[in-house]
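Because showing beats explaining, we think one record worth quoting, sequence and backbone structure tokens together, and here it is:
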Amino acid sequence: MTGHPTELSYASGTATTPLLGDTIGSNLDRTTAAHPEREALVDAPSGRRWTYAQFTADVDQLARGLLARGISRGDRVGIWAVNCPEWLLVQYATARIGAVMVNINPAYRTHELAYVLRQSGVRMLIASTEYKTSDYRAMAREVAGECPRLAETVHIGTPGWDELAAAGDAVGEDELRAAEALLSCDDPVNIQYTSGTTGFPKGATLSHHNILNNGYFVGELLGYTEQDRVCLPVPFYHCFGMVMGNLAATSHGACVVIPAPSFEPAASLKAVQDERCTSLYGVPTMFIAELGLPDFASYDLSSLRTGIMAGSPCPVEVMKRVVAEMHMAEVAICYGMTETSPVSTQTRTDDDLERRTATVGRVLPHLEVKVVDPGTGVTLPRGAAGELCTRGYSVMLGYWEEPERTAEVIDAGRWMHTGDLAVMREDGYLAITGRIKDMIIRGGENVYPREIEEFLYTHPKISDVQVVGVPDERYGEEILACVIPHDQGDPPTRDEIAAFCAGRLAHYKIPRHLRVMAEFPMTVSGKVRKVELRQEASGGGPA
């Protein structure tokens, strides 16, 4: 790269390592043949453990059970469960026979569950029994009548689950291999529902090739080998857990460690300590919660070297503490979306603090990225803000049975339009400046919330902050800062924030409104739902 000022905001990821051409099942076999006695999976809550040989044997037993129940290539199998070993068994068993696993958020209630089961045509639902306030058995019974294609529901940890696995005894190894021989790596293997800002969620349909390669190259950039042990407090029903976590690990012979059914900061650190994990994943709020534990210093985290922080921008101070106090010198920032399997850009293990906090890294091997004018689609010069687009093996097959909605985001050149505003720097690193629809236009000035958020993170009273635009008669939009204070009893005032910003931010960037909150509304993947913050503020007026 010349660094010439007219250089365009385009980059392609070169690689000496070729793409994988196998299916998820054959890739698991390759790992198991190389490392049969290494641990593949540890479930900290129950103490259960699997070597690769044991894990693959259990995957194959479940795969034969699915075949015995009439599930075959292309059939949809729903998984509606919290993090547990059975989740991985279902993930790899469905892939083994070419069934399409449909991820269902465990927070879904009956209305959402029924929609997803119907829209994807799920034939078999595999679900938890209950967790916290969710009674999965009761909800599954309630919607069964609305889902004509749903033939069977199996609950994990019940006799029904044991019977499903035992049914595999009636299916021979040769029958399983014959089913697997029919598969192509370009077959769909997974449907993940992404929350649209309007209307029903869309089912991003991903192939073996999409997610196996994405997990593999994320793992490559983290330097994974069979020596690594990956602690996953992030949900499996999202790409963060099942692709960047599970597939990155199994494609390298590493071990997956489940600390708890859902995120618990103390359980995560205890699992790292007890299992000598080398890698830990989370969204920034998870790392903030872990660092904030009163007994944080008592955990031995010296085995850690790497991990992934993704989902939303990482505050500089948090990143400093993660590197220094959690021993994660090689922690990576990843950026992506479900529709791109998910990761498009990633920081490298030797990147400095500035690149890990001001950018989301550079393009992954075998992928392309560009920043375009949202109006014309023309690629912009480096340094100019526009819409980020990505192309390559990672782009989904499409939204399940929704060609029109697919065509709205994937253009004729197979570029995925992310809807994110980004700037490509001279060094090829990308900074995400917000969503196109998050950009605030105040009195004709384009205001990017991320810049104001980063500045307000440095305020001594502010623990977390989100900035959104709210309607204003005079300026079109005004700026609202939603803050979570360090101390709910002593939150910052609007005047304090204005004084803090004065002389350091342009006047039009200073928040006009303030709302003090205890927590932010979150999406399933750990992103703050800014659309909800805007709606609440616009409906009731900012506090």
